[in-house]
């Protein structure tokens, strides 16, 4: 009796694959060997990477670990910039010397 066309199953097993190499690569990817013995012995599989590194005193993200200090903008610099830009806007730079001297006098206090 004839068979229905298109009902044969697709081959799923890869016969031409090197199983030894496949298993070795899978083992390497699944759990890489940590070279540092201190980290390897202190590692706890039940904890996350961030928790493990924090307990060891290491940082997951160095940008968040080091405090970033905002620089203070001195008030005299703000005043001098505003006066200088105002002098450039009004008068085309003719009165800039007087305003610059005023700004320097303000900055001398700081």
UniProtKB/TrEMBL annotation:
Transmembrane segments: none annotated. This is Nucleolar protein 16. Belongs to the NOP16 family. The gene is LOC109696067. Its main location: nucleus. Coiled coil: none annotated. It is found in: Nucleus, Nucleolus. InterPro entries: Ribosome_biogenesis_Nop16. GO terms for biological process: ribosomal large subunit biogenesis. PANTHER family: HSPC111 PROTEIN-RELATED, NUCLEOLAR PROTEIN 16. Keywords: Nucleus. GO terms for cellular component: nucleolus. Residues 1-31 are annotated as: Disordered.
């Amino acid at each position: 009796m004839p068979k229905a066309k298109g009902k044969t199953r697709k081959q799923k097993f890869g016969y031409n694959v090197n199983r030894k190499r496949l298993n070795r690569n899978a083992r390497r990817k699944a759990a890489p060997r940590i070279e540092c013995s201190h980290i390897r012995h202190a590692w706890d599989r039940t904890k996350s990477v961030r928790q493990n590194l924090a307990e060891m005193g290491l940082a997951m993200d160095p940008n968040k670990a080091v405090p970033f200090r905002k620089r203070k903008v001195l008030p005299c610099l703000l005043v001098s910039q505003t006066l200088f830009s105002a002098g450039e806007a009004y008068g085309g730079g003719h009165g800039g010397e007087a305003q610059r001297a005023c700004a320097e006098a303000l900055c001398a206090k700081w």
